[in-house]
Structures are given as C-alpha cells and as structure tokens.
Fold this sequence. Notes:
There is one protein chain. The chain is mostly helical. 53% of the residues lie in helices and 6% in strands. Strands 3, 4, 7, 8, 9, 10, 11, 12, 13 and 14 form a ten-stranded mixed beta sheet that branches. Strands 15-17-18-16-19-20-21 form a seven-stranded mixed beta sheet, with helices on both faces. Helix 39 (1008-1022) runs antiparallel to helix 45 (1166-1181), helix 53 (1428-1458) runs parallel beside helix 55 and helix 57 packs across helix 61.
Amino acid sequence: xxxxxxxxxxxxxxxxxxxxxxxxxxxxxxxxxxxxxxxxxxxxxxxxxxxxxxxxxxxxxxxxxxxxxxxxxxxxxxxxxxxxxxxxxxxxxxxxxxxxxxxxxxxxxxxxxxxxxxxxxxxxxxxxxxxxxxxxxxxxxxxxxxxxxxxxxxxxxxxxxxxxxxxxxxxxxxxxxxxxxxxxxxxxxxxxxxxxxxxxxxxxxxxxxxxxxxxxxxxxxxxxxxxxxxxxxxxxxxxxxxxxxxxxxxxxxxxxxxxxxxxxxxxxxxxxxxxxxxxxxxxxxxxxxxxxxxxxxxxxxxxxxxxxxxxxxxxxxxxxxxxxxxxxxxxxxxxxxxxxxxxxxxxxxxxxxxxxxxxxxxxxxxxxxxxxxxxxxxxxxxxxxxxxxxxxxxxxxxxxxxxxxxxxxxxxxxxxxxxxxxxxxxxxxxxxxxxxxxxxxxxxxxxxxxxxxxxxxxxxxxxxxxxxxxxxxxxxxxxxxxxxxxxxxxxxxxxxxxxxxxxxxxxxxxxxxxxxxxxxxxxxxxxxxxxxxxxxxxxxxxxxxxxxxxxxxxxxxxxxxxxxxxxxxxxxxxxxxxxxxxxxxxxxxxxxxxxxxxxxxxxxxxxxxxxxxxxxxxxxxxxxxxxxxxxxxxxxxxxxxxxxxxxxxxxxxxxxxxxxxxxxxxxxxxxxxxxxxxxxxxxxxxxxxxxxxxxxxxxxxxxxxxxxxxxxxxxxxxxxxxxxxxxxxxxxxxxxxxxxxxxxxxxxxxxxxxxxxxxxxxxxxxxxxxxxxxxxxxxxxxxxxxxxxxxxxxxxxxxxxxxxxxxxxxxxxxxxxxxxxxxxxxxxxxxxxxxxxxxxxxxxxxxxxxxxxxxxxxxxxxxxxxxxxxxxxxxxxxxxxxxxxxxxxxxxxxxxxxxxxxxxxxxxxxxxxxxxxxxxxxxxxxxxxxxxxxxxxxxxxxxxxxxxxxxxxxxxxxxxxxxxxxxxxxxxxxxxxxxxxxxxxxxxxxxxxxxxxxxxxxxxxxxxxxxxxxxxxxxxxxxxxxxxxxxxxxxxxxxxxxxxxxxxxxxxxxxxxxxxxxxxxxxxxxxxxxxxxxxxxxxxxxxxxxxxxxxxxxxxxxxxxxxxxxxxxxxxxxxxxxxxxxxxxxxxxxxxxxxxxxxxxxxxxxxxxxxxxxxxxxxxxxxxxxxxxxxxxxxxxxxxxxxxxxxxxxxxxxxxxxxxxxxxxxxxxxxxxxxxxxxxxxxxxxxxxxxxxxxxxxxxxxxxxxxxxxxxxxxxxxxxxxxxxxxxxxxxxxxxxxxxxxxxxxxxxxxxxxxxxxxxxxxxxxxxxxxxxxxxxxxxxxxxxxxxxxxxxxxxxxxxxxxxxxxxxxxxxxxxxxxxxxxxxxxxxxxxxxxxxxxxxxxxxxxxxxxxxxxxxxxxxxxxxxxxxxxxxxxxxxxxxxxxxxxxxxxxxxxxxxxxxxxxxxxxxxxxxxxxxxxxxxxxxxxxxxxxxxxxxxxxxxxxxxxxxxxxxxxxxxxxxxxxxxxxxxxxxxxxxxxxxxxxxxxxxxxxxxxxxxxxxxxxxxxxxxxxxxxxxxxxxxxxxxxxxxxxxxxxxxxxxxxxxxxxxxxxxxxxxxxxxxxxxxxxxxxxxxxxxxxxxxxxxxxxxxxxxxxxxxxxxxxxxxxxxxxxxxxxxxxxxxxxxxxxxxxxxxxxxxxxxxxxxxxxxxxxxxxxxxxxxxxxxxxxxxxxxxxxxxxxxxxxxxxxxxxxxxxxxxxxxxxxxxxxxxxxxxxxxxxxxxxxxxxxxxxxxxxxxxxxxxxxxxxxxxxxxxxxxxxxxxxxxxxxxxxxxxxxxxxxxxxxxxxxxxxxxxxxxxxxxxxxxxxxxxxxxxxxxxxxxxxxxxxxxxxxxxxxxxxxxxxxxx
Length: 1890
C-alpha cells in the first residue's frame, strides 16, 4: 500500500525531500497531484521542513491512488530512490540498459500501439460530456526493460512535468549531468514525442527526430538549452527508449507543416496538446499521424468520434508547468501572486535613461512594456541583442559533455521566446488595470489584441472584456461620408460583423500574414497579427496556443481607398481547431463567417467538421492545394457542403501557380460580399454572454469589478441629459462656482468699483463671496454625489479603482452619445436656420457643457469641501460638525494611484485653492514628507497632441478622446525609484497637462487672450521644465502663442524663477529637419528676443532684455522636431515609429537635464508647491502680475539673505570700528612732530587696503551663499545685484567715515601741540625748582619736619607759578564765526535775504526758541486756487521735512561735541552743506518754499549749533588750561619731593602712581571705546537676535509688542515719528535686556580682562625686562600699548622724575597693583546704572542696531509704512503690510474725515489721488509709479492681509481723529468684526512667521 509506505517511511521521505524541496513541490503541482490552491498555500510556507511535512499530509488525504502517483513522481525525480519506498509493483523491477535490448525499439513501438489503443478506447464517453470524464491513464502503466513506459507521462501533454525550480533562471543551480545509461532511442517517434531534449541521437535519422542541433529539429526550437538540461535523466531515458508510436516520416512531415503555421515551428505541436482535455471528439495529432501508418487504422477509426479521456488536473498541470517555465525564463514568477501594476511600470528608474535592447530573456517583458507604453511599433519583437550576458548562457552549453565544438544551431532561436508567449505571460502577471493600459496601447499601435487568453493558470480560457473597456475608436462609415459625419464609440460596445480565421491541420503558408495583407492598404502594409516571417515570429510558442486575437478594420469614409464600407472585426485562433475546440466553438457562435484554412481534409477531419451541422454561421474554406490529396479533400468538402449549407463561393483555393496577391484579392472580394449581405453584428459585450454560456471565463466576472459596477450603475442610471444632470445633481460647480470665481477675481481687479470707496467695495465683494459660499453649504448632497462619495470612500482600494474606471467608461459613453446627438442637431440647425446665430449660440453653449467625467464629480466634492471650510473659518460651525473633512485624504490616495487631479477648473477658470491645498497637504503626509518633485508642464495650441505627448512620454492617462479636450489643468504624479532619487534629485515627477491655448470656443470672448496669459503664467510658474508644443503651420498663430509664453517667462524671471524650456515642433518628419531648420531656429530666437523686449515694455520693465535673459534656453539643445503621431491616415494608421522614438529621446534628455540640474537647485517639495500655487494664482488674479506677486518662499529666501547680509555687514563694520579705535589711539599717542603731512596719506592708503579686503570678503560671502544651495536661493537671484551694490555702498560709507574720523583725530592732536609744548616747558621749570628746593633742604643743618617740608614746597610752587608766563588759548566767539559763514553762504541770494540777515538777532538767542511754521514759508503762487486742503497738506509736509532736517543736524552737532576736541570752521561749513542738500531735494520734490523759510531754518539750526559749539570750545579751553593741568600734577611732585628728601625707596609708590594716574584713566577710556562694540556683538548673538536679523522680523516684533500693550501714544509715535520711536524702542530693549539678564557686568569683565591680559603680556615681555632704566622700560611699554591705550604724558613725566628704581622691581610692583586697578575700574562701572553705562560709551550700541533695522528709512508715500528692503542700496522699496492712509494723516477734502482706504487696495482699483508730487492733479493710483518709481506697492495677497491695521484703526479711530485734528473715519462694518487674534494672525502671515 502506497499510503502505508508513506506513513512508515515519513521521516526518511522528509529527509530525502529536504534536499530539493522546491523541485518536488513544483513537480507534484505540474502533474496535478496537488491543486493550484494547495500549491500556493504550501509555497507561502517559509520553513522547508514544514512545507514537506504538510505536503505529505495532503498527499495521504488524497487516498491510495494519490499516494501511488506521488511515489511514482519521486521515483522519477530521484535515481537512487530507495526500493522499499517505491510504489507497490515497482519495487523489484530491474533496470536494463537499452544497449542490452537491440529490439527495444520494436517492442516499444508495439507496446506503445497497444497502450495507445487502450487509452483511446477508454475515452469513448468524452464527446457526450468532455468535462466530466476524468480517467487516470496512469493505471495502465507498464514497465519495460526496467524503465517507465511511454504512458508514464501524460501523452496529451508531454510537458506536464517539465518545469521545476531547476529550470527557473532566477533560481538556477548546478545543472544535472546526463545519466550514464541513457537510451540510444532507436525507436521511431511521433512529433508529440519531441517534448524533451534528446542528448544521444538515434542511429537511424529516418525513423527518429533530428538532433536538436539540426536546423530542422523539432525540439531545437522548442526549448532553450538552459531548460533542456534541467529535465530529469529518467525522462531522457524514456524519451530515448522510443516507446511512442510513430507516424512515420510522412506523418512527421505533415505534422511539422501543420505547426509551422503562424510562427509555430513543428515542435510547437507539443504545446498545442496542452488543451486537449477541452477538445471534444478530436483525436490526438499523433493518432492522426498514426492513421497513415500501417497497422494503426483500427485505432484511428475508433478515435474519430472519441477523444481520449485525460485528467483535467494533469492537463492543467501540464499547462501550468509550461507556464512556470516561461515565467521563470522571463523572471516574472514573483508577479504571479503580487501582480504587476501600472504605477510600478511608470516608476522612473535608472533604466529610464538606458537603451531598451533586451539581452537576456528576463529583459523581454520590460522591453515589451516600455516600448508599448512609448507606442513603439517594435514592442512585440523578442529578439535579443548581441552581447548576451553570461547568466543567459544555457545549461545545455554549460553542461553538455558530447564534446561537439561546431553545430548548425542558430543562436537567436536558442535564447528567445515567441512574442505571443511574452504577451500572454505579461498579461497573466499584470493586474486588470495594467491589462487595460496594455491593450489600449496595443490598439493605438494597431496590434491585434488578445480576445481569448488561453487556459494557463485557470481551467478555462479567459475573455478579455475588461481589458478592452478603455479603447475608444473613431471612424467614418460610407453611410456618413457625404455628410462628413463620424462615429466614435467604445470598442467593447460597438456591434460589428466578426470574421474568424482558424486552421485545420497543417498549412504551409501563414494564416496571419494572409489577413495582414487583406487588412492593409496596398501602399501601407501593417502587421496587425504576428506571423512567422516577422522578427521573432518563427520561434515556437510555448504557452500561447489557444490564444484568440482580434483586430478591426475601420473605414475613413473614402470610397476609393477604404477596403470595406463598414467596420469589421477579424479574429485569429492560434493553433489547430482540433486542439482548441472550445475556442473554435466560441468563434462559431459569435462570428458572421468562419474561414478555415487547411491543406487537406481526411475522414477524421470530416467527422469533426460534420459536428458543425446546423450552425447559423457561414463557413468558408481556404484550401492550399496539395498534390496527391486534392481529390480526397475535394470529395470530403463536397460531402460536407450540404451539411454546412456551403456554396461554391465558400471555397477559396490557392493554386500552386498563383501568388499570395491573387488569394488576397479573392479573400477581400469574399469579405466584401459577406459585408454586403447584412451579416450579424455582435459587440464584445455580447461575446461575453456567449463565453459564459460555453463556460469560458470573463475577466470582469470577479466580485470587486461587479461590486464597483453596481455602485456606478446606480449613479449613471439617473443620467439622461448631461447638461440637465449637471445643473440638477452637480449644483455647486454651476453658476454658484462661476460667480464665486468672478467675485474672487473682482476682489483683486476692482473693475466694477465705480464710485464706491475701495475698502467698502471690497467689503461688499467679501459679503457677496460669503453669501455664495453659504448657498453652496446649504445645498444638500444629491443622491448621485452620496453614491459617488460612498464609492470612493467606503469601497476597498481595488473596488475603488474599479469604481473610478467604471465611472469613466460610463460617463464617457453617455457624454459621447449626448455629444453625437447635439452635433447632429447643430448641423441640422446650421442648414435650417442660416444666419440666425442666437439659437446656434445656445446650442453651442449646451455642447460646451455636455462633457461629463469623473473630474466633475471630484470638482463637486472640492466645492462641498471649500464651502464647509469657509463656514468653519467664519465660525458658523466647528470642526466637530464637519462631514467632508476626510475628502482630501481620499483625493490624495487617488493621486498616489495615478489618477490625474484637477488643478485648474477650466469651466470656471478658477482654482479651488483650499481644496487643492488640503489635498496636496494630505499627499505630503502620506508620502512621509518625502515629496521633493520636479514639475514638468506642457503648453500649446488646442488639439496639437499635448496630452498624447505626455501620455506617450510618461505612460500617463490624461484624457485624449474626441470631444474631451483638456479644460484647465490636470496634474499627475509619477514616482521615482528609491535607487534613482538621489541621482535625479527628486522623489516624484509632477506632470501638468494644460488646456490648449487659442481655443476656438474661447476666441469670441473679450478676455480670451488674458485667459491664455493667466493659464500660461500659472503653469509656467509652477514648472521646472516647460514643454512648448508647436504643431501649427500658421505663423501668426504660432506668434500669438509665443507671445503668451514669453510674457509668462518674463514674469517668472522677474520673481526669480528662471526655468527651462523645450520647444517641440510636431509633424516634422524629415531626417534633415534639425539641420534644415537651423535658420528657422535662429529666426525663432530673434522673434523671441523681439517679443521679450515688447513684453518687457508691456510689463513696464525698463531694462533691455533678451529671451535668454529670462529663461534657460539653448536653441540647439532645446529644440525638438517630432514626426506626426500617425503613420498614415487614421483610423487604420498605426503610431509613427519616428514619433515614438523622438518622444523617447526627449524623455531621456529631460531626465538627463534633471540629473544635471539637481546639484545646483533643490527641487520643490509639496508644501513649497502649495505656496507657489497660492501666490501665483493670487498674482494671476491681478491684472499687473509682476507687482502683484507675493510668495512666502521668496519672502523667506529674501529674509534669510537679509539676515546673512546683516551678519556680514556687522562683521565688516565691527572690524572697521576696531581699526578706527586703534588708529585714533595711535594718533593720540604720537607727538605733533610725528604727525607730518604724510601721516594722513599713509592712513588713507591703509584705510583703502582694509576696506578693499573687507569688501572682497563680504562679496565672497555673498557669492558663497548663492552657491551654497540653500533653500530657494534661485528665487532671489535677481536681488543679488542689489546686495552687491549694498556692499559697495557700505564700503563707500565706511570709507567716508574712517577718513573723516582719521582727519579729525589728526587735527585734534595737532591742535593740542602748542598746549603740550607749553606744558612740557612749564614742567621742566617746575622740576628744576623742585630739584633746587631738594638740594636746599638737604643742606640745612636741621632736618625738616613733614609740615615744614610741605610749607617749603607750597611756597616754592606758588613762586614758580607766579614766575611762569602761563599762556592760555584765546576764547573765541563761535557764534560770530558761524554768522559770518551763514552770511557768506547766502551772499548771492538777493537783497531781501540780506535784509533778513541784518535784522536777525544774535545766533545764541535762537537756541531757546522752537522753530514754528509760518504761513509765509509756503510759496503757493504756482497754484492759482490755494485751497485750504492744499495749504494744510503742504504745511504738514513742510513740518515733517523741517523736523527731519533739524534732527539730522542735531545728530551731526552731537557727534562733533562728543569728540571732545576744539571747534573747527569746517563744522559749520558741513552743516550748511547738509541743509542746502536737503533743501535742494525738497525743491526737486516740488515743495516750493519762500526765502524766509530757508533763512529762518538756517538761523534756527546754526543758532543751536553755535551754542553747542561755544560750550564745546569753552570746555576744551578749560580742560587744557596750563595752570589747571599743573595744579593736577602738584600732589605727584610733592610726593616725589618728600620721598627724595627722606630717601625712601619710592619704587612701589611710583608703581602705584603709574597704575593709578596712567593706567586707570587709560583703561577707563578703553572701556568707553570698546564696550559698545562688544554689547552689539553680544546682543546680536543672544536669543533676541532674530528680532533684529532683518527688517521684516523687526517690524513683526514691534507690531506684535504694540498689539500686546495697546497703548495709543505708542502707536502715534510709531506712525508719526518712526525713526525716533525705533531708536527709543531699541534703547529700551537694550536696557531691559541687560537689566534682566545682568549680562552687562560680564561684558565689562570680559572687555577689561582682554586688555589686562595684553598689559600683563607687555610687562612680562623680555624686551621690557631687559631695559636699563625705568624711563626705557616705560618707553617700551608705551610703544607696545600704543594702539590700545592713551597714557597721560604729564603723569608719566612726574613718575620718571628722579626715578632710579630697579626696572625689574618696578615691573613687579606694577603687576602687584594691577589687580587693584582692575577691581577699582569694575566697581566704578558697577556703580553706574544701566542707562548711565550707555551714556558713557563712545560707540553707541543702540545707534548701530538702529542702522541694522532701520534700513534706508524711506516710507510709503501714501501710508508712511517703512521700507523693509534689505541692504543699504536697493533699487526698490517695499513693505509687507500697508496700513490705512488715515493713519498717515490723510483725510477727505470735504468731510475732513480720516480716510480708511489702503494703498495696497487702491493700486488695483480705479481710485484717483493727488498730492504735492502730482502738483495736486488727479491721477489713478494704478499709475503711482510715475511719481514714485522706486516704490513697489503690492496688492494684499488676501482680504485678511491688512487686518492688523484695520483692527488698530477701528480701535483708536476717535483717538487718531483727535490727534490729527480731523473727523473719525466711517469704517466698514467688516472691520468691526476683526478680533485681536485675527489681527495678530494677519501679521504672522504677512511677515511669514507661521
């Protein structure tokens, strides 16, 4: 018992099977011992032992017979299989070599014949029920010569156990070596025995199959050598034994001929037998051969009406084995379960850049798919390229031991597969959606499509209905030729006559080639069907037999050239009808006529065909006449004619003397006859019904597909009239959405404003917008939308995908029907109504609205979502009430699955911004925030193949069918493979397909050109690469398109987005096009340059531009010439090969370009793309794009650049301040004699060098930053020049400052020279007197007591000072000198001015009087009617000007006074120059003032200056009074005198004096110079530094703080006196910061510690210690510290007087006192309050920080908002937020009310303005740049952008009115709704602080 054998030997079996578990599993599956489901379940088990254990259990459960089959299988697999485990009855059979039985061949033949007859006899019931009879032929197994007989292998399927893991190229192991005892195989063999490679050939070539190496070999082309060796040696023994009955040579030849048909070489008959279980009443072909062999007639007679019963499991297992072999060769096994998806195929990988030539079998599927997606006509070729890799070397070559060196075998046939095998394998491994795409592309290429897929992995073949659902064809039948109408319909729904072609028996000419010629026009041959004479067509099929292909002929409406007047379908069955009776039965049911090709008919065939009696189908025979058989064939045909109701015309004979052309002619004529006889028409959907009746599977018949269909039918059942359905069921996207779009644009353009104030009008529009949103939100979901949401939201992913596909098919079908009807109606009315355009216009409108697609339903979802979001923002209901919040996530999933997403609604010309934003945000989240992408866009005229270009290039699914021209723009996402992302620089490619420009339906609209401009601007702005598709011959039209494109590119360049452009010229097929069109390209570039200049003028750009300035364009590299899409005239034209190849070249170039671009520019991610969409769309909605564009990415990049620039600027300034500090110290340490004429020149050269070095360093930093690849730097590229200029400007500013300071320091030092010389002389005199007194006192007899000594010294001091001729500097009357300078300045201004000066009082009296405005100051004589408004405005302007000028002059005076030098005449001259310069600017600014204003202003300013300079002069004289200076030295002289008299060691005392009198004052001054610089450095590096990093940050910080404090007085100061407020703000912040942190003390310690270290280092210096005297020591010390400290020379002289101390001791003593000095200085600084510390500093930190954030100081001419532009020398001023003009004192002329209009709204409105700069003439705000060319006032990006200032104005309306002496503004109601929170949020968004 086999069952018992397995049970007892379980462990041994497990151990044995574990050596090769996979081959065992494959073998039992291929033999049908286990089912497909069991096999899949076992294969999923990871543990081999567990897999084998469960396999044994399953085998045992199958009973005794299953166990026997299993053990037999093992015996064949394992040569050394233990005898005790062999199946019963097999254990004791000895194996004998064939060599020992010379008669083996004859014996085998005899036994084989008997066995065969028995097998045939056993299947007599097959005809009655072919599927129910399952007979195990294996029961009759016989053993001969110790070897398995022929029946051991399923004769109906010789491949049933061929495939194993050993054959799998992916898992190939060491090939098996042939057994030593192989049979010589002398017995004759039938073609069916040619299943396995025969390694030792028979001696008699006439009675056996030829060698595999023989070109005529049946097996030679059957399997690749790699597979040959993988077959087990037992099978080889069997094959060589010759135990299969032979047909003889003649039979073999016939069989060969029969199988060569259609590219099947003779040995492929093997694969034909795979389906014999489905063939009722058909004997095996080997039996048919046997009928011609003597001795076999009886069995043949019995078999004519009886088919052998064969186990379906075995048959299916055999097919499965062949399939596994093919899948292994093609490396597709992993896709058997996890199907290949379309998005996997579209993924961009390194292979996208490579050549598609296949080199190994595993390349073939990808070669086919890639070429097919690219619509390449060579996609079906399976020829392998030269240079096949080692891994493809067949096992036969590696393992053969025959020793043959040469053979006649062709390499190509060795290593390839039939194209149909590849197609079947690919379809099998593809999911249903990829199958659809494959068949759609095949249809475009005019390839025959698979209608019935052979039974490979299923028991029955499969009808490919679903796979063909997506195919739509368009044609013109002759019935519509006159009216020039056409039909367009889904292929599966179109009922057509079907003509089928099948083959019976053998046929020496190609059936497929025959009807390729029938279907092709004479001048344009096309291979619809693959045939043997095509490339790769001669390779035998392994799995494709039983395939039914279908192709169509569609007429073009040309009677002269069309082959048939109406469309017709043609099907082709691959293989013999005997082997594929089920497929043949199906074709007989669905066809109008069946053509049977044969060369001869025998009795058996006659019997077979007789079974067709009663069929309604017409049967035609195409007979290829064969000598010797013609008589018999014709006799049988005549006999058959009445049974099949055949006429004479139904036989077409190909005579030997005629060529194929004659037959083609006959066949066409016959087909035309059939077509004219009203044949029955069936659609593919109808065929599906027939297929189901016959038990054929239909690919749509799965649960997911049907579930989705049910959902779709519920929706589409309601659609009758498309326009009506859209109105009633898709209500939100109708008039509501279009009105919303109009309101949104009007909010930006303000065209309908008329006399309404801008802000009121905007409020009205906003209310209208909200009302429309409310109406949308109040709409309930219609039944159709409820079902649609259910479909995409609740179905599982696969069902959802099917649902959307079904929706597309149904909606397209409905829309096509509607469109066809409407077009016909339109045509009728055109003829009937004539010139009555009104009705035609109405109908035209309906036609435009008749399209209906999934995008309309998605658009409706978007509107529901947007309406809900609007209500949430308005606070109408909370998030908890939201019902559509999940929709963006669903839409994001669809994008990930490859569905195009609508970006721009073409019907409303609007973007649902909230919807798009949230969908893309969800997409970003689902991608794990890895969403870097390159955006590719196509632009061009409508219907020029833009969508087709993108679909071909990337395999996308943008709509391209008739009547479905793209409206708006759609985006589709393509994934980049993980291993290619770094190289390509992105994670995805986003492709945007756009509506065609110059659309005829929009041409009549006034704004059609603007519409095109908007579209082009938006999509070009979003893209990184733009493809401009030009396929028109009309030069004017092309020029219009180019103008639109150039405008868009110019706008992008202006906002810093310089992208790449590829010009594609379609319909250019000449090979010399590129060369011939060189002149055209040059001419095109010239045109583009001219258009760029014109566009620049239109966009009000002043600079001269060329096309290359605005975009990256190389005419040679970026121009593409692409042939037309169709090769011939549609509808029968295939895709042009040149088109496909050219598009592929373009695609490769784009990827290469992206690779090269990626290191230089970071791609956008999804959030950045969202920002671009919002900002571009907002700008597009404004008429003036460039000055409307605002983008947070640009703003952020600009801010970061400004922050970096501010850091570089401070580093530069700091370096210069430190240098100046040291230079001043050095100058102060030099004697007057050293400050010669060359000193200043030397400093000038040094200043030039260090400034040049600093400038270069800063420019290099700027350059490095732009090259660093920091985020979005390319967006601010246009500002680079501004910052470059700012660096130069800064250098000039610092140069002027340093030179002035240096000159001033030298002048002051020289001014002190006379005083210092006198002081030196006086000190020498005093020292002589002290020395004399010392001698006199020492000579006295009696020692003097201390008080006596002091009296003597005092007496001497008094007498000496009395004797000295002390000279003081003269006191000057500064005011008189200044008055003189003023008179000189005004001497040429006329007598009136002289009189005014004469009457003027003493200048010093003006300092106490405030400057008051007088009426006579204004000169309004130029304006005839000096209205009060003008007077008030001019007065205010003059007040502001005066205030500013006075403040500037005060700053200058303060700087000069702070220098502590003496007054110089240059100070007054500089002041007068400043005043004159500002007055000149004011005159240029049209401020006309009287002479009295100038005189009074100068008197007032110079009066203040005179007083300040007089005090400065007097302070200088006092400080440098000789007597005072000497008195200061008296204590030191007395101390020295006393020590000398008492002969004390005064070294320590002198060291103390040095520290106290010299070092301490010098250190204090050092602290005053350096501490300010360090405070700035510290403050800017603190946590608060970000607030001062850029002007935008600073503005946000101030406004936020003001909002928190809500102090009106602060707002008034901020608005009215911005500069003063900012300085006060900064100072307060500085004080608060250091008061709170206590950091000032640390800074003081750090600054002092630095200089103390330098002092100690100087004292420790060996050079100083080696000095011989203290005087020399101190000279060295002063020299070392000359750049750091200014030591008092007077005090030094006293210390050196009579100083004989030891140098070393003196140095040590000084260091002892240094710590005391340091502590003393720090304690004195600590005693100062924070505010007092800042007043002590010479370098004011608040002033430096003010310079950093104040910028240029310019304010908006309307609302006074300060400029935020970075750098110090920018070309344009701008601000993030403008404020109501009333805050800048503007008021209504008549009502005196403060105006509340915003200049950011006014500049896009029709409002007028007038002021001083317009000479009080009215001008539109839109033209403000005529008067303020350096200001760029951008419209608010949203209606909420200015909420901050609206809130402040509303809050303090009455306060501002009172402050400005005006009436309160009458503010819009909307403003009163703004909250403090909204106000804060608005500046967060405006300053990009989110």
